[in-house]
């Protein structure tokens, strides 16, 4: 325990010295060349997140909760809940698939259009507030070379969980709106357009902060949040978002079976790529998670091919098929090796 405190104190002291040096290094070559503002900001944010990683507890409970959620987030888009040829809204199977989507996108698919404006505004309030807090803390740490424990923990917990939860449903809301504009010729007010554009910008900003924090997690806390921070989890998140986005983009395409089939085949490619993640740079740091992700990749390929056939034939899915989909996943998982 004393050794850990000594190590933390030493590391904090080193970062304090680094921060002091950085604060006077906004110029290069004896002041002849000024360092660009964003380069200075990136360096200062890196120093702040490094300090946060050293001084905050590992919060293992978040690690376990986020692991479960991101597994649902990976397999969820495979059901193509926005494909109304497969899941008609007025059928029991369609309603069931809508409520199943809660497990990976928080809001049932049928209610996306109803709550999207409110959801986007809530997302903006939260993300902008946290971005301001990070920038203020960055300036404070640069001057004081220390941070109150509350703010360090708040930043660490938030960027290790909330962006991973909110980005997918917000991106889905925006893509469904774009689909309505393209296929249904709906119109948006100026305020709605501004809100959606700012949402896209804030999603990119949040991804930047998460990526920067992840880099420091790998360096300073290799045993904490392991299933959230490796490069493989970042790829998993991007693949899940790509499948969801392309499906949401054509969600209002009426009965265009050809377009739906093309999108599902594209999703098949994404899930095929996912089967390689457990073998990439050490996988997901957990044999169980490696086996789960490999199973989801194989299962996604198989189910997407089946759903392509249903879509091409314009056959909707019955509730019995849902039970078959759930049962077949466990069969695939049993057949996949534990890494």
TrEMBL record:
Presence of the UniProt keyword Glycosyltransferase in the record: no
TM regions (residue ranges): 121-141, 162-184, 190-213, 233-251, 257-279, 291-311, 317-336
Keywords from the UniProt entry: Membrane, Transmembrane, Transmembrane helix
Protein name: Uncharacterized protein
Chain segments carrying region Disordered: 1-24
Domain of life of the organism encoding this protein: Eukaryota
Keyword set includes Chloroplast: no
């Amino acid at each position: 325990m004393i050794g850990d405190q000594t190590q933390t104190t030493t590391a904090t002291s080193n970062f304090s010295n680094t921060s002091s040096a950085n604060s006077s290094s906004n110029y290069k070559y004896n002041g002849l060349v000024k360092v660009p503002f964003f380069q200075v900001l990136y360096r200062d944010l890196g120093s702040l997140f490094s300090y946060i990683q050293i001084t905050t507890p590992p919060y293992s409970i978040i690690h376990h909760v986020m692991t479960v959620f991101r597994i649902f987030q990976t397999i969820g888009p495979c059901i193509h809940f926005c494909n109304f040829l497969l899941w008609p809204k007025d059928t029991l199977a369609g309603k069931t698939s809508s409520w199943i989507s809660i497990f990976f996108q928080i809001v049932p698919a049928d209610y996306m259009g109803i709550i999207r404006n409110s959801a986007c505004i809530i997302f903006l309030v939260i993300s902008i507030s946290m971005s301001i807090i990070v920038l203020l803390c960055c300036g404070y740490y640069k001057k004081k070379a220390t941070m109150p424990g509350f703010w360090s923990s708040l930043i660490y917990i938030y960027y290790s969980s909330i962006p991973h939860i909110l980005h997918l449903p917000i991106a889905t809301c925006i893509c469904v709106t774009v689909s309505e504009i393209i296929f249904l010729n709906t119109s948006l007010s100026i305020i709605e357009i501004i809100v959606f554009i700012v949402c896209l910008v804030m999603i990119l900003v949040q991804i930047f902060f998460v990526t920067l924090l992840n880099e420091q997690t790998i360096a300073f806390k290799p045993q904490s949040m392991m299933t959230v921070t490796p490069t493989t989890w970042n790829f998993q998140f991007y693949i899940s978002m790509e499948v969801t986005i392309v499906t949401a983009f054509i969600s209002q395409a009426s009965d265009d079976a050809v377009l739906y089939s093309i999108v599902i085949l594209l999703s098949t490619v994404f899930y095929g790529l996912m089967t390689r993640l457990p073998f990439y740079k050490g996988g997901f740091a957990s044999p169980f998670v490696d086996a789960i992700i490999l199973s989801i990749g194989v299962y996604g390929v198989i189910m997407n091919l089946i759903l392509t056939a249903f879509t091409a034939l314009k056959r909707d899915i019955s509730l019995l098929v849902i039970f078959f989909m759930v049962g077949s996943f466990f069969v695939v998982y049993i057949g996949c090796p534990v890494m």
